[in-house]
Amino acid sequence: VVGLMLTSLGIVLGSSGGIGGGGIVVPIYIIVLDLTPRFAIPLGSVTVMGGSLAGLILNLKKRHPLADRPVIDWDLILVMEPLVLVGALVGAMFHRIVSEKILTVLLVLLLSVVAH
Q1: Dist. CA 72–CA 22, nearest whole Å
Q2: pLDDT, average across residues 79-88
Q3: DSSP-H helix ranges across the chain
Q4: Residue 63, beta-bridge partner list
Q5: Average pLDDT of span 85-109
């Protein structure tokens, strides 16, 4: 129950801050729910996807307050998404071949750099 509440709070904070919440949710899964990084990382990705879909549904018809355009910048999405997909595919392949210890070290390094 505590893990679910913290995960929900992490997704709300991550989505409202525009970062998705994966850097918040994955450590919650590992520390609070005692999941292994090999299971927590993909679960974090699915959780962030759910939060992103909810944000998309809520913002799909909203207009920008200062300009005559949608809130969602579709041109930026068209530029960014191909590289995001390549990164996701490379990350998924890397996730399969790297050991649990290396995954943990890389996760700690990544979150430390992002938090700094």
Answers
A1: 21
A2: 92
A3: 2-17, 22-31, 37-59, 74-97, 100-115
A4: 70
A5: 89
Looking at this protein, which amino acid is placed at residue 38?
A: R
Residue 24 banded pLDDT, cuts 50, 70, 90: confident
> Rounded to two decimals, what is the model's pTM?
0.72
First to last CA, the chain: 30
* φ, ψ at 113 (rounded to 5°): -65, -45
**Do 29 and 40 touch, CB atoms closer than 8 A?**
yes
Alpha carbons 105 and 97: distance in angstroms, whole number: 15
Q: What percent of the chain has pLDDT over 90?
A: 23
The CA distances from residue 56 to 20, 25, 59, 70, in Å, are 12, 19, 5, 12
Q: What is the DSSP letter of 66?
A: S
Distance CA 116, CA 71 (A): 29
Lowest mean pLDDT among 11-20, 57-66, 89-98: 11-20
